[in-house]
Structure formats: C-alpha cells, structure tokens
Write a structure and sequence with these properties.
By secondary structure, the protein is an all-alpha fold. The chain is built from 2 helices and no strands. α1 packs antiparallel against α2.
C-alpha cells in the first residue's frame, strides 16, 4: 500500500512539474528557434541576439501564465499536506 501511494505521489509530482514548466519551455524554445533561423539568414552571429529575446519571452510568459502556475503549484502542495493524515 505504501509503495502505491509513493508512486502515485511521484507521478502527480512529475505531471505537475511538467505542466508548470511546459509553457515557459515551449515559448523559449520557439523564440530560440526563430532567432537561430534569423541569425542564419542574416549571418549575424551575436550572442546577445539569441539571449535577450528568449529572456524577454520568458518574462512575458511568467507574467501571463504566472498566476496559473502559482495556483497549480499551491493546489498540489495543499493536496500533499492534506493527504498526510491518510498516510498514518
């Protein structure tokens, strides 16, 4: 019974982490890909050109999706804390 609960909690942890990180990772990956294509086409190889747009995109995603991410993370933590009495 204990192993079942541990595996379920681990699975829920991994899915929650994936859902929280997915928007940020997807947008920065897409922006990085677009900037790389732009650098290849224009033959401009400037390091800050690839870093700054990804940073700006990450900030925008955090501003837009941040409340949802925080709500999801708090719900996961509250669920874990609420399940403590069931373990004993």
């Amino acid at each position: 019974m204990g192993n079942d609960m541990a595996l379920r909690m681990l699975s829920e942890l991994l899915w929650t982490g994936l859902l929280i990180a997915a928007p940020l990772l997807a947008v920065t990956l897409l922006v990085g890909l677009l900037v790389s294509v732009l650098q290849v086409v224009t033959q401009i190889q400037e390091a800050s050109l690839s870093f700054v747009p990804k940073l700006v995109a990450a900030v925008v995603v955090l501003v837009v999706c941040g409340p949802w991410m925080l709500k999801r993370l708090v719900a996961f933590g509250a669920g874990l804390i609420a399940s403590i009495p069931q373990q004993f």
